[in-house]
Amino acid sequence: xxxxxxxxxxxxxRTPKTLSNLLIGLSNSWIVCNEGEATWNAFxxxxxxIEGEKNNWIPRIExxxxxxxxxxxxxFDRFSQIHQNAEKTIEQLLSEFTKIRRKxxxxxxxxxxxxxxxxxxxxxxxxxxxxxxxxxSTWVAHDLNHISQITRVLAKRxxxxxxxWKAYLRIxxx
Length: 174
Description:
By secondary structure, the chain is mainly alpha-helical. It has seven helices and two strands. Strands 1-2 form a two-stranded antiparallel ribbon. Residues 12-150 form the DinB-like domain. InterPro entries: DinB-like, DinB/YfiT-like.
């Protein structure tokens, strides 16, 4: 087992800045490019991350700590952001994400201490019994997954333009 709470925090606190450094100031064509029909662009991903901050990570962690296996987590709508952010800019989304993540990490630190049993369990609507450390580990891996997704989508915008070098660019062959 590799999970260490403080190491998890290291990634979670860096994600907003990583995405802001990557996306703020880019031309809109970068922000809205995607991998084809029914795929997400950077704007959609950041909106999804915000929804996770509001309705997934901390609410489920609180349920594990306070209710254990007595209640099932409410389902999380992984696509709710698609239509609700249309009037916002990527800068607005990233600002919102940064603020809510900062607040959520403060809440997380208040919920978890050296005496917290990270093996406490809750009930996921699809997976059944899940552990607190698994929920936090998934939060970290989820961030990294979506950072990777955004960079892949951006790279694929130039997929046809790189010519023969495509053979050496794994990101374009995924």
